[in-house]
Write a structure and sequence with these properties.
Shape: globular
Distance between the termini: 13 Å
CATH architecture of one domain: Distorted Sandwich
CATH class of one domain: Mainly Beta
Number of helices: 2
CATH topology of one domain: Beta-galactosidase, Chain A, domain 5
Bound molecules: beta-D-glucopyranose
Strand content: 35-45%
Strand order of the largest sheet: 11-12-13-14-29-23-22-17-20
Largest sheet: 9 strands, antiparallel
Structural class: mainly beta
Length: 358
Amino acid sequence: MTQTNSSISKRPYGTTASGQAVEEYTLTNANGVEGKIITFGGIITSLRVPDRKGSMADVVLGFTNLTDYETKSPYFGALIGRYGNRIGKASFMLDGAQYTLALNDGPNSLHGGVKGFDKKVWSAKEGKSDTGIALELSYLSPDGEEGYPGNLSVTVTYTLTNDNAIRIDYSATTDKTTVVNLTNHSYFNLAGNGSGTIYDHIVQIYADRYTPVSGTLIPTGELAPVAGTPFDFRSPKVVNGGIRSGHQQMVYGRGYDHNFVLNRKTDNALEIAARVYDPSSGRAVEVWTTEPAIQFYTSNFVDATLVGSSGGIYRQGDAFCLETQHYPDSPNQPAFPTTTLKPGDTYNTTTVYKFSAD
Ligand code: BGC
């Protein structure tokens, strides 16, 4: 592979419907791996990594223009907040007060509400370190935004490292007790964006248990063993092996759309959560995180109505998401690890997507 100098550049990407200017940053590492990130939603719009022969392909689904991201995106590549995944009945109690959120997913609230962090324009600052090129994004979410309490000050730093990883460091502080659960919603296809489904990809998830859901995809509260179910990815398994199972959970999710409870050894060091390998290209991604759980989603609700950056339509199963997170609906489930953030404390999590090929 040719060694080049790592670099970062920016260009105007467009203007939102409400008149805010959006920039696109291009980060390139010493191996020529290139990521594009826009300040709207902190969206990773493109990520070009080599296959086993050194050929580059864009391994994330996306669009070619801002309007599509603003109006029809199923969260392609976006930063998700204040609360990744669902909160049941779009409400929760905190310190004796009831908070009501927008209903944007049947009877529930999904991914921070109607105008979550995926639809905000973030302030950007370029950075460079020994390990790679960085883009620091920040956003101040005002008290009451989308129904959540507290002014929440959020910083997310993307680093494209010279060992072909995207590292995402999330931090947040609040001036009122609140809940927070941040993630990134990239849709990956290791054979290349637009190349078909990911059903031949081989997945390993380091989880003995997962959180089964009700018909509206809210956890029942049970931490169920994956053993003997299509959710057993403790050894590498092809997606096709289980995705057509008649298991009731698979029917609810229309495929994989479940939160896996990671087998953590420490409370918050970076540990491996998952690995996905595409036998056709040889590309692999490892996901490392400080979070307790990960949502494995096989783009079940992507239904051929979107024309993407590949030039073609996206269909069900064309990508997988591995969203590191706390469990869905944690504010309503006291037995789950807490998502409460108090004034004076700092929310800090890190997730790394590390690419390789063989
Ligand atoms: C959820 C899915 C949802 C998707 C896109 C995932 O995190 O678990 O149910 O359809 O995001 O909205």
